[in-house]
Amino acid sequence: AAIYSDAGEWTSAADEWLRAGEWAQAVDLLVAHGHVERALALLAERREGEALARRAALLAEQKRWQEALPLYQQLGDLAGQAQAQTGLGNGEEAAHLWVQAARQTERPHPPAELRQHLADCYAAAAQLYRQSYRWEAMNEARRKAHYYRGLPWLEVEVAGKAFVLNQRNVLEMTVYNEGGGPAGQVEVTLHA
Fold it and tell me: What contacts 47, CB < 8 A, 6 or more positions away?
């Protein structure tokens, strides 16, 4: 595969990756060099969930929503379904799916990445509800997006190594609030 790649024979290199059992490498190579249709055909032959997800994402990148939607449905990917429905112009259905995607992952005290995902889902739903003049649903989705964006997101940075000062172990650290909301009380517990 390396020899074909060096020679610029991308499809031959992809064939070699396939012979070696590395279908993901073959797909990456084909997509990177503009052979999207060949990559999609290769993915259509695979039965793995990862291949199905990559095929759906690749179709979505190509804005081929009609083909991507059934794949996202098969995967149970609500966010992907919402994206496809938006692309197809079905804003009402897309908004409902964005809310479902958020509700499916909501839980108490979510980590920062999940809070961002929840905020993004609700913000997308609010925008779509606005376009369909569903003001009450829009306001509810906006409130939830604002809530998740307003939570404190604390990051801890440790400067250097621990040192001894006046016969005590000392560790210098800084706590940053990366979120939009106030952090009322911060407790730090260190264990040796």
Answer: none
